Amino acid sequence: MSSGAESPKNLYLGITPEFLDEESRSICPLLTPSPTAVHFRHPLSSPGYDQQHSPSSGDTEISSLPAALCTRAEKSPITETGRLITDGLEGSSSSSSCSVMQDSGASAQLLNYFTLSADPSAIEKGGLKSVVNLLGLSKQAQEYSFVSWNWTVIRRWCFWGVMSLAVACICIIIGYISTIPRRCDPSRSWYQGTLIYQIFPPSFQDSDGSGVGDLKGITSRIGYLDRLGVRGVRLSYIFPSRSYPEHFQNPENLTQIDHTIGTFKDFEVMLESLHRSNISVVLDIPLFPFFDRLKMKSDEEEQEVKHVIVNNHILVSTTNKTHGWVSERSEITDVLLFWLNIGVDGFYLEGLEHFLTDELFISQIFEWRAILNKYNQGFEKILICSEEVVKSLTKNMHTIANAESKLNVVMKSFDLINVHLDPFTNGVPSIKEKLHEVQNGVIYSKPGYPWVYWTSGGVDTLRLASKAPYGNVTMALLLTTMALPGTTGIFYGDEIGLLNVDDEQFIDVQHLHQLAPMHWSDSPNSYGFAVRNIIPWMKVTPSRLSLSATQFITQMSIIKDSSPGLYMNAMWKNDRLIPNSEIRYIDENVLLLERNYPRRHTFLLMANIGKEKLMKDFSSHYYGGVLILDTSGGAERYATFQDTQLVPGQAIIAKLDK
């Protein structure tokens, strides 16, 4: 820096920096920047910038700007033409702070902060541009369009929009939570682990005073079925015969309804009413009696023409001794299609075990299954057969042609296998034997195979109450059947201990003695079966229990329907079915059945099906639990099993401690 005197060329109108007053110095404190401790490269000090704005470039107008900023003279430093009057400025190390202009970096910094302008507003401010211009805003605030927007309305819309979005999110979350099931129970089909009620229509309820039960009578008792917890009604023998109902086993065709019990219109009304109550309808199809009779005729004749009425059309087919099953196959298929079109939900194929040796057995079963699958439409149509089909194929694996393939098609095509229990004839221990046989047999060999359909009564067996060793043990047996793994079947009247007909006047129809009319009241004449004191077609018999006893069936249905440990037939683990039931104790009178399921309460059934009172300590098996059902009263209480007493016919369902 030069130490000489200030050059007149660098002064503005003769005013030197040494004579700046305090106010003038205070407004430009950046005129004397301190040198940086290290080398600092300012963004504006690029070579191009230095070449354009360096004071050494000969642009005396720009190089003399700091002098103008440092001078606040009374006269304007601007000429009439708007240009600066510069006479040159010589820097000196001992001169004022304005000598910093000798440093090009400092000049660049100053130009970054201050700009001399010739507009009037800048002149009034001593040559400085306004702050707005320094920020790059060339317009006034009122000139922007958003300033004139209705911000009051915008703020309201934004507020309520955010609030609405928050409320919508909360509602979505609440709706999602409300749809989440409270219990994560395993799913099942309508026929699995439920109660199916078998009805012989002529003996259930007479609605027209004919003395014979009918379809309208069934419709009038749907409320009773619903209270029991029934999810399926199995109708047995509704087809016409020469003397119906006395000779119901000999139907003349399988696509008609005997006029004694009603018309197709009555059937459709009954079907619709049952479906509204979430009760399905399964129809018994007597294959063997019907088609065996035709085979007997074909043995006598080389060929015969048979007429079958289906949908009011006569179908003609031929049969002979060699290929009898071919015509029967087509007719059975037509029968199934006929009832499926009406709305039936399943079929019990009675007598199927008589056709195991037929060479078309496999293709016929496949055809029936395919037909039912076409009619599923979100609601499964089912096939049921007797355990005799499975037992015969299993025992005669080497004597029946393609027995293994036939067994395989049965397991994959049928939904329920009927297993019959008869502890009053075979003894209470036979229940354990039958359960062990089922769980270790082919039914439990693979997942997806049919469920067990447990029954203890039926059209062709004696009444339970007539075989029971003691009064009300039928209720204990029914509750035991409902506690077994699988689906339960109850024959009408067994829930009230209905007895067989025992009268010499009816000795000629001894095969019908188990088909006594159902009780609906305490009236001794017909017990509410018939109207206007009409004598029923079959003699009315007393019952061991009253209708009030059916409350235990209702309670058991509710408990089972909500408990996977009771309605599931097994546990599926590692592609294997693991039984979830075990009989812990059994003798000639009493059995203890345990049912369990993962992460659920274990249930215990204690039932006295014999004729002797039991007093025993079961604390070595179980300590205690909550009694949720007790046929002798006293349910909904906690009990221990040190001194357990069970009278004949008593059954207890306990929810054990975890």
UniProtKB/TrEMBL annotation:
<feature type="region of interest" description="Disordered">
    <location>
        <begin position="39"/>
        <end position="61"/>
    </location>
</feature>
<dbReference type="InterPro" id="IPR017853">
    <property type="entry name" value="GH"/>
</dbReference>
<protein>
    <recommendedName>
        <fullName>Glycosyl hydrolase family 13 catalytic domain-containing protein</fullName>
    </recommendedName>
</protein>
<dbReference type="InterPro" id="IPR006047">
    <property type="entry name" value="GH13_cat_dom"/>
</dbReference>
<keyword id="KW-1133">Transmembrane helix</keyword>
<keyword id="KW-0472">Membrane</keyword>
<feature type="transmembrane region" description="Helical">
    <location>
        <begin position="157"/>
        <end position="177"/>
    </location>
</feature>
<feature type="compositionally biased region" description="Polar residues">
    <location>
        <begin position="48"/>
        <end position="61"/>
    </location>
</feature>
<dbReference type="Pfam" id="PF00128">
    <property type="entry name" value="Alpha-amylase"/>
</dbReference>
<feature type="domain" description="Glycosyl hydrolase family 13 catalytic">
    <location>
        <begin position="198"/>
        <end position="519"/>
    </location>
</feature>
<dbReference type="GO" id="GO:0005975">
    <property type="term" value="P:carbohydrate metabolic process"/>
</dbReference>
<keyword id="KW-0812">Transmembrane</keyword>
